[in-house]
Task: inverse folding
């Protein structure tokens, strides 16, 4: 079935009138988070939606009421389920219930929002075709203020409704969503259920500022006037299941964790937004199903933190984004530009962390450190590079400078008691510091994987880490700019604040790993770090690191689809 | 994330079981009929909707007591030990 012949739901006509971009995201990209406005709406609709009342007609004092009537029209190309149709004195009219209060016109009389009017009018058009009888007016019931407002279906309104149908058809064939609402309508974004997906202020800002941020992150930048529309933190906890030999089942919508037949704990799923299964833990199919239904992603990692895979609840059906992704990432010029953007951000963040950490030793600012100077040079040279390979080389040189000083980042307790670090090693990590670094990168990779999947990307097709067999290259690309600020920073906190002790590691045949207790300490610190709020360097407002991962992934999506001219990596100030 | 203390008084054992089970989907049991619920504003609407459908509106009652972060920090218990209440914020490790 082609998209252009599917009937358009009347609800969609409401959305397209409210905001064409909202319609596109919801019905063409098929992303549907629910916010409390929508949930509140469900609460008010209860009487209509409860199955036993559906399609039954009741008569009460001369008014016949039918509920939940499904109508569809091939001529108009629309369909819908009508809340309520009333019939009185031979006249039929639709009644639609909306959450919230009625707006008032200049004379103080209650009216109907224009988008709701279009939806109601579309219902009238459906009724006229189905019943062959004119429908001159309908009613909008506002549950919030308990007002029932009449609405005349004028010629102008009918025209507007038909125009909305045409607009939907036009939007359906576009490759990318239309621009966010202009400033004078921006107040609508605050009640929009898709604001966190749409990122209206950020997209418009980027459209107006096509130049990437300059290299010198220490220069004072005035934050732009981007108003915060999207929520700044994520809701709910991350649940780590790691007790060896435990099994996880479900009861209603909470998890019951058992070991050796004994119940150990219960976890309410609605308080959880992500689950990580670590090592030898059995999760029942029923539990997995419930998590998928509640849109909770489940990641599997080994006891050593190696990411095995994830169980993503019905991935975003965003085929056009994936097509654009493959096209864009196969284009050498675009890949080069993106690679520079993430490496620029990574180097800048490593340099900032280095300067901050070493500042105490010498009285001057850390910028006099030779490594900081070297990294500054690399940053300055980045723009001149002409291939992804050379960007990779610069990134490697930066890492060498940075990890060359990493030992000095660690607080040095009396010899023999603390942690030694000489070089970065992995596969397997051979000492505690490397073990916890590897573990932190694995956890971050898992979160980046989830972020790119949420947005609807293919995690395996990257622009920088190209063609590494079987690696989720794109997740790793997104991760670069966050490595120092999330992963390295957690490692420093854990070690310098003595949240981890040498006893939290086991070394076996050259490989060093965290113990169960060590992992537990790690998870707490890691999630704490992700909750930390930082200022976005471009948009100038604060949000959590967890949220920032998704924001950056969404900006990449906007770049890939050509909505914005450049991508700017996240750089701490 | 919002925090609520959800307490109930249900006069029929069958409905009581249903209410308890629903609360367990959203929060942590503090006492027999007292739950600490820390969820998004969306989830709290969902909880309210589900409880509304279960209870008998003439005989039963569910209270939703909003808790500020500072009230939550000052919560104390005497007698039996209780789980630290802010532990479940960011990471839950089992
Ligand atoms: S946030 Fe604003 S621009 Fe974006 S979809 Fe919603 S209403 Fe439209």
Result:
């Amino acid at each position: 079935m082609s998209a252009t012949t599917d009937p358009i739901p009347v609800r969609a006509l409401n959305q397209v009138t409210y905001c064409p971009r909202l319609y596109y995201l919801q019905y063409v990209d098929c992303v549907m988070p629910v916010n409390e406005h929508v949930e509140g709406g469900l609460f008010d609709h209860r009487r209509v939606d409860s199955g036993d009342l559906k399609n039954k007609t009741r008569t009460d004092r001369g008014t016949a009421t039918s509920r939940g009537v499904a109508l569809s029209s091939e001529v108009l190309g629309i369909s819908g389920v009508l809340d309520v149709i009333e019939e009185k004195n031979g006249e039929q009219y639709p009644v639609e219930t909306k959450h919230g209060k009625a707006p008032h016109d200049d004379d103080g009389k209650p009216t109907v929002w224009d988008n709701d009017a279009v939806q109601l009018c579309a219902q009238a058009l459906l009724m006229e075709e189905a019943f062959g009888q004119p429908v001159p007016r309908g009613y909008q019931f506002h549950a919030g203020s308990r007002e029932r407002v009449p609405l005349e279906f004028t010629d102008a309104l009918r025209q507007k409704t038909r125009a909305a149908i045409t607009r939907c058809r036009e939007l359906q064939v576009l490759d990318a969503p239309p621009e966010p609402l202009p400033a004078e309508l921006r107040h609508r974004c605050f009640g929009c259920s898709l604001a966190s997906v749409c990122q209206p202020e950020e997209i418009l800002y980027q459209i107006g500022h096509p130049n990437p941020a300059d290299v010198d992150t220490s220069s004072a930048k005035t934050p732009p006037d981007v108003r915060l529309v999207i929520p700044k933190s994520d809701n709910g906890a991350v649940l780590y299941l790691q007790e060896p030999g435990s099994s996880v089942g479900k009861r209603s919508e909470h998890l019951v964790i058992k070991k050796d037949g004994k119940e150990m704990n219960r976890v309410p799923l609605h308080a959880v937004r992500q689950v990580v299964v670590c090592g030898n833990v059995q999760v029942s199919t029923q539990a997995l199903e419930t998590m998928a239904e509640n849109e909770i992603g489940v990641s599997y990692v080994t006891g050593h933190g190696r990411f095995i895979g994830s169980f993503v609840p019905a991935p975003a059906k965003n085929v056009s984004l994936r097509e654009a992704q493959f096209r864009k990432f196969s284009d050498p010029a675009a890949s080069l530009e993106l690679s520079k953007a993430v490496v620029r951000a990574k180097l800048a963040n490593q340099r900032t962390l280095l300067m901050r950490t070493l500042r105490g030793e010498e009285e001057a600012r850390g910028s006099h450190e030779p490594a900081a100077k070297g990294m500054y040079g690399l940053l300055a040279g980045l723009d001149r590079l002409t291939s992804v390979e050379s960007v990779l080389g610069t990134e490697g040189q930066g890492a060498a400078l940075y990890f060359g000083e990493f030992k000095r980042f660690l607080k040095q307790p009396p010899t023999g008691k603390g942690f030694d670090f000489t070089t970065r090693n992995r596969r397997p990590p051979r000492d505690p510091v490397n073990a916890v670094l590897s573990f932190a990168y694995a956890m971050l990779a898992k979160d980046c994987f989830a972020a790119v999947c949420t947005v609807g990307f293919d995690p395996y097709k990257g622009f920088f880490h190209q063609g590494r067999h079987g690696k989720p290259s794109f997740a790793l690309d997104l991760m670069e700019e966050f490595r120092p600020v999330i992963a390295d920073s957690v490692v420093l906190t854990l070690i310098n604040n003595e949240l981890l002790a040498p006893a939290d590691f086991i070394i076996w045949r050259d490989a060093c790993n965290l113990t169960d207790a060590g992992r537990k300490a790690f998870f707490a610190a890691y999630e704490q770090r992700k909750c930390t709020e930082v200022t976005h360097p471009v948009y100038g407002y604060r949000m959590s690191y967890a949220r920032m991962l998704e924001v950056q992934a969404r900006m990449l999506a906007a770049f890939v689809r050509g909505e914005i001219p450049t991508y700017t990596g996240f750089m701490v100030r | 994330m919002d925090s609520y203390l959800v307490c109930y008084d249900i006069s029929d054992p069958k409905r009581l079981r249903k209410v308890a089970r629903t609360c367990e989907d959203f929060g942590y049991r503090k006492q027999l009929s007292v739950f600490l619920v820390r969820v998004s504003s969306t989830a709290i609407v969902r909880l309210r909707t589900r409880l509304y459908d279960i209870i008998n509106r003439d005989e039963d009652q569910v209270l939703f007591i909003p808790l500020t972060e500072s009230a939550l920090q000052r919560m104390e218990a005497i007698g039996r030990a209780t789980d630290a209440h802010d532990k479940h914020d960011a990471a839950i490790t089992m």
Chain B has a mean pLDDT of 82. The interface with chain A takes residues 1, 21-22, 24-29, 37-43, 45-49, 52-53, 88-94 of chain B (CB under 8 Å).
